[in-house]
Amino acid sequence: MKLKGATLKQTGSTTAPPEMHVTFQKNLQLLRIADAKLFQCVNDHYDSTPLTIESLQGTKGYSATFHDGHTISREGDQSTWLEIADQSVTVNINTELVPLIIGVENGEVILAIARKTDEPFYEFPEAFISLYIVEERVDHFILFMHLFDLREILFSQRVNFAVGPEWEAMLRAHLKRGNTRKPTKIFSTQGGESAVAYTRSVIERIGSEIDQEARQLQAELHDYYAENSYEVWQTQSSLMNADRPLRVLGIVSVFSSFIKYCMQDLLQGVRDLGHETELLIENDRGFNAFNAFKQLKSFKPDLIIIIDHMRWEWKGVFPPGLPVVSWIQDLLPNLTQADDKRLLKEDIVFSFAKAWLEDGSLSGPMFQESNKEAHFLPIGFNHHVIQPRSDVEKDLDVVVVSHLCDPGENCNCIRAGETMRLYIPEKHLLEADRVTVSQLLRLYQVFMETLDGFSSFDLTRIQFETGALDDLGRDLLQRVNLPTDPDYLDLFNGYCSRVIWEIITRIKARPVEHLVKAGVDLHVYGKNWSQISGIDSAIRGQIAFGDELNRLTNRAKIALNAPGTTFHMRSLEIIGSRTFMLSRDLPHAFDLTSLTDFFERDSEVILYRDGMDLVEKVHYYLDNPEQRERIAERAYRKSLDQFTYPKVAERMINVVSEELTGHSST
Q: Which of 344, 347, 343 is nearest to 323 (CA)?
């Protein structure tokens, strides 16, 4: 596409500086890549829109006159506007804010709101808040492109532009996409309350149209599954000899990279069995039901797979009769506090942790009153990527691959005297003047001193033993003269808290510190290891998942399974590459699913008790390569037999078939 020519006219004693022209041209070329439709709109309008810009020297202001005589002027800085915007945008992990900005005249405000709402959830760095920018006049948007460097928002997947006379149609198209939610807060930099009221009415009208289309799709899906609920399962005499392949739809949250990899690998295993799959990734902290209905109608899945969620959380999206597998990998409140929910006949629940099936964590009212039980489904590995490499030499003695949390999330920021990024319980107590910063810092200082005296076993017990964190919290709060009511104990609990992350960091760091101190040739890969003092010689930076990680693991004579649950994705990546692995010997009470449930101790997996035992075993197996390789080979053969994702998928489909029809599919 050839860019049409245009002249930027100049008037007055001062003229627009050349950098404005440069900024516009850069933005225009970026827009060509980022948003082809908007580029076409701007490009078509540009040569028919004489535009005059007069620089107001010494200020952040400007004035512009358009072809119809309309003039915009802004003098001085926009501190008042920026203060209003700052006070109007409150962002936290529970926010329902989805901003829409009317008009681009106050560009500083747009950029300020964009920056404040950009990736605000450090607990979930892949989540984002959508931002809508509406501008009816294309010439105003062209001026906006002259005045501001827009790189940071033009390439942001969360920013949605609706520009020109067809802005309503553009906004409708945005709202019908799969990764957006309806705007909830409107800022107007032009037109005042009347513009806000009209825009809100447009949003409501578009929402009503989408809801009507969604209801029609929902009715059609209900009719389809009323007639076709179990037909495919009844005729499925075997996984590979069905009347037709199964159609399996995987739905996964945006909040966890691990869960996304897990779902993608599981679906690959389903395809390896000869079935068809599609993937739907939830975006923007929400689920777009309209697009889910469209994909359901188009694909007509025989089975839905979701991780860490249940059917009822999608509020009627999945019609009765459509089987839904829930694979639980984290005991989140939506599961543990769901006493008023019930499972349907076609709901099948799996747990990746044996411990949750044994201790009753997944046997609450939703199971009991439905006369159902959860099943065990282990994690697997993608054998297309994770495999032995004959072209790689084993030239590294010991390798560790594991991430540590950001130092702002644990207590490292306090040790280093750096700024804390507040968790919600910390923020609430500070904002309510129920604790001072100095009291909070003192509490964490006493906490760190207490952990210094704990063994690795003590740290693990505090992390996993029921009530242990509360007991520790009460003791520490009393020692610093703070109350022990639930609001203060929340500092020690929760899926994400500074206390939990500090404990996990120390558990992961202990074996690395032991090996470095013993002079072992250690190579540590992953994020944030620089916060651990004394191990600089071992830190090697990050490694990409997939083939690069597999090649690295193949280079290791010994790969260390990072502490935590012993049977998980990383342990299978090591075993699946036919590399010798050392793993921590955890009591079953603290091990959600143990390696020794599947692999023979001392024959297929080698476990260490503590730091001294770890160092001794590292030296022994480095000196005995033949024994090391025999153990790695036995574990590898068993992993191929049981834990490739086709094996995991086969196990899952068999259980679903038994639940739905009373007979196995094999």
A: 347
Residue written as token pair 């196995």: 664
Return the exposure string of 21-31: e unless at least 16 CB atoms fall within 10 Å of the residue's CB, then b.
eebbeebbebb
pLDDT in tens, 615-655: 999 999 999 999 999 999 999 999 999 999 999 999 999 99
- Distance in angstroms (rounded) separating the CA atoms of residues 469 and 493: 7
Tokens for 190, please give them. Answer: 């032009």
Query: Got the DSSP string for 76-120?
Result: S--HHHHHHHHHH----TT----EEEE-SS-HHHHHHHHHHTSS-
Strands of the 581-584 sheet, one edge to the other? 522-525, 396-401, 556-561, 581-584, 606-608
**pLDDT for residue 536:** 95
Sign of dihedral through CA atoms 455, 461, 463, 468? negative
Positions of the chain with pLDDT under 70? 1-17, 47, 49-51, 53-61, 75-95, 119-127, 178-180, 191, 234-243, 254-256, 283-288, 336-341, 364-370, 494-496, 663-666
SS3 annotation, 253-275: CCCCHHHHHHHHHHHHHHHHCCC
Q: How far is CA 159 from CA 109, 130, 255, 327, 425, in A?
A: 14, 6, 19, 33, 30
Q: Is 140 exposed, middle or buried (0-12, 13-18, 19+ CB in 10 A)?
A: buried
pLDDT for 4: 34
- Rounded Cα–Cα distance for residues 186 and 393 (Å): 60
Q: Report residue 46 as tokens.
A: 């540009």
Partners of residue 251 on adjacent β-strands: 280, 306
Q: Rounded CA gap, 593 and 566, in Å?
A: 7
Whether the predicted model's global pTM rises above the 0.85 cut? no
> What's the number of CA atoms in the CB half-sphere (13 Å) around residue 418?
12
Q: What confidence score (pLDDT) does residue 165 get?
A: 92
Considering only CA atoms, give the Rg of the chain: 29
- 641: its two tokens: 């037999």
- For 83-103, what is each residue's pLDDT tens digit? 666 666 666 555 678 889 998
Q: Are strands 62-65 and 71-74 parallel, antiparallel or unpaired?
A: antiparallel
Percent of the chain with pLDDT over 90: 48
Contact 421, 408 (CB under 8 A): yes
Cα dihedral 638, 640, 643, 649, rounded to 10, equals -140
